[in-house]
Amino acid sequence: MKPFLLLATRAEDVPADEEYALFVQFTGLSPEQLIRVRLEAGPMPAYDLDDLSGIFVGGGPFNASDPPSKKSVVQHRVEAEFHDLLDEVVARDFPFLGACYGIGTVGAHQGATIDGTYREPISVVPVTLTEAGASDPLLVGMPREFEAFVGHKEAISVLPSSATLLASSPTCPVQMFRVGSNVYATQFHPELDLDGITTRIHAYADHGYFASDELELTLAAVRRAAVTHTGRILRTFVERYAR
């Protein structure tokens, strides 16, 4: 089998390593079958898409809607690299699944409006599939409504015409979309379990996702409901695209 690629941007080792471990766990891939590249540490290597089965993008600290003057040199580099990669991915309709930061990369590439209108605090929210989502092959076996972990400072407020809306939540209309037949993005985190999001809450306590006195409230918010279905999306992606 050709390997899958995980493009990551987390600079903190503990949540970065746990993110990779969770992708391995939920995809069912071995470490040899899931190549990780930490883009915050250096330039994106050149990959021939013919040598890969598919691409995952994890979450991260960058916000596509930040003013250019507030973006670091690293963020500018990473955004340029994603733009070039997505030129080829979208043109070839190559298997791609971006989670959280991944929705910003695909959304920005396709001309979506991305801003803070529908930001969501770190929590569990009910996500509902659209008619298109309920019939999408990647979402086969998913309930029409399911709980998911979220936590983001920006979101897509206007979806581009090239995208098909697959899922929404009451506080964020664009929770998942598809471009073409094989390029997917989610605002929620399909790779997270309770331990994983707890690690991130502690790791990013001073990153503006919640006030300094809201740590316990935030930890309680992610325990509000059980999240049991989202990891299936990653396994189905692998089953559908492994070659």
Describe this structure in a few short sentences.
Helices cover 32% and strands 26% of the residues. The protein is an alpha/beta fold and 243 residues long.
Could you describe the 3D structure shown?
The protein is an alpha/beta fold. The chain has one domain: Rossmann fold, CATH 3.40.50.880. Helices cover 32% and strands 26% of the residues. It has seven helices and eleven strands. The protein has helices spanning 13-27, 73-92, 101-110, 131-134, 194-203, 215-221, 231-241, and strands at 4-8, 34-38, 54-57, 96-99, 113-115, 120-129, 145-152, 155-158, 163-169, 172-179, 183-186. Strands 2-1-3-4-11-10-9-6-7 form a nine-stranded mixed beta sheet, with helices on both faces. Strands 5-8 form a two-stranded antiparallel ribbon. Helix 1 runs antiparallel to helix 5 (194-203) and helix 2 (73-92) crosses helix 3. The longest helix is centred in the middle third of the chain and has 20 residues, at 73-92. The protein is globular. It starts with a strand and ends with a helix. The relative contact order is 0.18. The model has no long low-confidence stretch (mean pLDDT 96). Residues 49-194 form the Glutamine amidotransferase domain. InterPro entries: ChyE-like, Class_I_gatase-like, GATASE.
